[in-house]
Amino acid sequence: MTTTAPTPEALFAKIDGKELHAVADLLAENATMVFGNGEPLVGREAILAANTAFMETIAALRHRIVDSWVVGATTIALTEVTYTRLDTREVTLPAVTIWRVGDDGLIVDFRVVVDLTPVYAP
């Protein structure tokens, strides 16, 4: 477990490397996550399971950090995310990721604002 808040570079490196257990280690046990307009996920294991299922629907992804801000315990990252589909086509989308950490540096609230519709379009 970590004791300091993850930087955007460190977090996205783990996500892009599909190191999902390492990402889960950054989460508080009772963390919440909302991805797009999906239902909130509650708990480290539920978040890990959902992200594992999502990663099976794409070949790869990579984040380019456009800008980021830290406001108290909250980090906001504006990114361009390139998704490689299973058919090898690439789709790049704008996204905003916001995470808030607790006193122990673990993420307690994680939100991703992105419209994935183009990734799954024919």
Question: What would your notes on this structure say?
Answer:
The protein is an alpha+beta fold. The chain has helices at residues 8-16, 20-24, 44-55, 117-120; strands spanning 27-35, 41-42, 60-71, 74-84, 90-101, 107-113. It has a 6-stranded mixed β-sheet with strand order 2-1-6-5-4-3, with helices on one face. The chain is globular and about 45 Å long. The N and C termini lie far apart (40 Å).
The helix-and-strand class reads alpha+beta
List segments where confidence is low: pLDDT < 50 over at least 5 consecutive residues: none
> What is the terminal separation in angstroms?
40 Å
SSE order, as H and E?
HHEEHEEEEH
Residue-averaged pLDDT: 95
As a whole number of angstroms, the C-alpha radius of gyration is 14 Å
Strand order of the largest sheet: 2-1-6-5-4-3
Task: Give the overall shape, derived from the CA principal axes.
Answer: globular
Extended strand count = 6
Please give the largest β-sheet. 6 strands, mixed
What share of the residues does DSSP label as strand, in percent?
Answer: 35-45%
Number of helices: 4
Instruction: State the share of residues found in helices, binned by percent.
Output: 10-25%
